[in-house]
């Protein structure tokens, strides 16, 4: 089937535009984090305001002016808007790639990494509506921008039809579910890393003057990491099971000790251990956070090293 080169070109333009907007958003998040007040300072200001004399009553017919947002707050709001705009460009690139090739746009490493990051971006925007964690934006977008840059500079593949091994409806089920799970796992991985940084500073109050003092408290970071992982784990489990069913249909066996299968199972075991550790007294906190980080590292290892260095039955998607 012929490839629509025009749509393919528009897809590439949309991808680079989305990447550029993400970089601007990350800069805006960084500005809010760098120049915004620490949570303790904001709380102190609120207490001072509570003890101050009552404001003069508003005169009839006069509309009370809402408090003006500070420059860092405006930067944070702009960052969220830019993140949403970047997500639209990002989604457009995958949509146009699919239309250009008349197939599901998950046929190679470039498309796969792009889809993983898109899921992470959407999950981040949803998280912003549930929790006041906008100051994490710089740290969340940094790995996303790095992954997108690597996908564009190292993994890029021209739009083309699917290779025969991937021409199955299972690519929509198995690969899509693994993409969603992998993208969502990025958020708890970052949250656990920042948890350790914040915890190290709380254990030594003299160091709280550092940049970590502007991070959300450890309870918030731990709760985000746990809840997102709880949501992701069943999806990841289903993705592995779906992959085994596809393997039986394509290769005549459910499990063949392929490197990608082995590392995927190792990742599953690590995340199962994290959930168990998080619910076990004595393993909460730092030990559980380290296990969660190890789980994310295994996902990244499986995504890059296994696909690009180790030869196996899953080496047909190309780079």
Search tags:
single chain; flat; mainly alpha; 319 residues
Can you describe what's shown?
Helices cover about 70% and strands about 0% of the residues. The chain starts with a helix and ends in an 11-residue tail after the last helix. The protein has two domains: about 1-40 and about 70-160; about 165-319, no CATH class. By secondary structure, it is mostly helical. It is flat, with a radius of gyration of 23 Å. The chain is built from nine helices and no strands. Helix 3 runs antiparallel to helix 4 (about 110-130).
Rounded to the nearest angstrom, the distance between the terminal CA atoms is 21 Å
Main beta-sheet strand count, sense and barrel state: none
Shape: flat
Number of strands: 0
Rg, Cα atoms, Å: 23 Å
Unreliable residue runs: 41-52
Number of helices: 9
Calculate the mean pLDDT score and round it: 83
Q: State which percent range the strand residues make up.
A: under 5%
Give the SSE order as H and E letters: HHHHHHHHH
* Class from helix and strand fractions: mainly alpha
- Integer tally of domains: 2
What's the quick description here?
The chain has 319 residues and is mainly α.
Helix/strand layout:
Layout: H1 5-35, H2 39-51, H3 71-101, H4 109-130, H5 137-153, H6 170-203, H7 218-251, H8 259-278, H9 286-308
Helix pairs in contact: 1-3, 1-5, 3-4, 4-5, 4-6, 6-7, 6-9, 7-8, 8-9
């Amino acid at each position: 089937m012929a490839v629509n080169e025009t749509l393919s070109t528009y897809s590439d333009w949309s991808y680079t535009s989305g990447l550029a907007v993400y970089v601007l958003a990350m800069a805006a998040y960084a500005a809010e984090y760098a120049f915004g007040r620490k949570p303790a300072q904001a709380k102190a200001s609120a207490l001072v305001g509570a003890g101050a004399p009552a404001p003069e009553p508003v005169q009839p017919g006069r509309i009370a002016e809402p408090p003006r947002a500070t420059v860092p707050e405006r930067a944070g709001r702009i960052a969220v808007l830019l993140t949403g705009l970047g997500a639209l460009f990002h989604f457009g690139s995958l949509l146009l790639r699919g239309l250009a090739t008349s197939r599901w746009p998950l046929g190679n490493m470039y498309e796969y990494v792009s889809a993983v990051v898109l899921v992470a971006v959407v999950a981040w925007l949803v998280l912003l509506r549930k929790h006041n964690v906008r100051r994490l934006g710089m740290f969340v977008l940094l790995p996303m921008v790095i992954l997108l840059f690597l996908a564009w500079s190292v993994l890029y593949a021209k739009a083309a039809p699917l290779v025969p091994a991937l021409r199955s409806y299972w690519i929509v089920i198995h690969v899509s579910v693994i993409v969603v799970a992998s993208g969502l796992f990025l958020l708890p991985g970052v949250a656990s890393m920042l948890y350790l940084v914040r915890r190290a500073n709380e254990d030594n109050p003299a160091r709280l003057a550092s940049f970590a003092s502007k991070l959300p408290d450890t309870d918030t970071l731990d709760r985000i990491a746990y809840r997102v992982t709880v949501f992701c784990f069943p999806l990841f489990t289903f993705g592995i099971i779906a992959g085994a069913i596809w393997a039986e249909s394509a290769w005549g066996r459910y499990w063949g000790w392929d490197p990608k299968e082995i590392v995927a199972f190792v990742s599953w075991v690590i995340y199962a251990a994290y959930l168990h550790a998080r619910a076990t007294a004595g393993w909460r906190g730092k030990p559980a956070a380290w296990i969660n980080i190890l789980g994310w590292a295994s996902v990244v290892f499986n995504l890059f090293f296994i696909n690009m260095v180790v030869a196996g039955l899953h080496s047909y998607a190309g780079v």
